């Protein structure tokens, strides 16, 4: 059927999309109001869209649907995918568990290619605008708190031990030197 109006057809509603209201993704045109996540219906733009075949998603829903599965990947503690990957040609007996990377460049790679580092406290994605580094790991500003007393920390008040962060008071009480004259009450006979 000829397209007399001159505009492309919207991939979502199939009505004519004129240039002033056009959004494009993977060579397809959308109305700005039709350029929404297939799952959560949130409005998208060129920085938040993630496409899979003919469907468009926000990055969060795309990650939940097509991203890695298992502990630490947004599925919650104790939930593992039973997908062995055999349909992709993987040998389930040949797979070995991998330790999380502590490579400092992994964050740059994740930011450039759409992913994000995980917060050391809550395991949710940490994006650059909300990231605080402590003990060599990323944290949300709201999660950057003492592991013992919950006090909010800053770069000048944080101390770390074994990958966990503490305020200076809790660190001194629990990991500092012990004995007479070092802040502990001792009895001399």
Describe the protein in words.
With 189 residues, the protein is an alpha+beta fold. Helix content is 12%, strand content 21%. The chain has helices spanning 59-66, 106-112, 168-175; strands spanning 8-9, 16-17, 22-25, 28-31, 49-52, 55-58, 117-118, 125-126, 131-134, 137-140, 158-161, 164-167. The strands form six sheets. It has a two-stranded antiparallel ribbon with strand order 1-2. Strands 3-4 form a two-stranded antiparallel sheet. Strands 5-6 form a two-stranded antiparallel sheet. The radius of gyration is 25 Å and the shape is rod-shaped. The termini are far apart. InterPro entries: Znf_LIM (IPR001781). Residues 8-68, 117-177 form the LIM zinc-binding domain.
**Which regions are unreliable across 5 or more consecutive residues at pLDDT < 50?**
74-80, 95-105
> Which of globular, elongated, flat, extended, rod-shaped describes the shape?
rod-shaped
Number of helices: 3
Helix content class: 10-25%
Tell me the strand order in the biggest sheet: 1-2
Keywords: LIM domain, Metal-binding, Nucleus, Repeat, Zinc
GO cellular component, one term: Z disc
Subcellular location: Nucleus
Protein name: CSRP3 protein
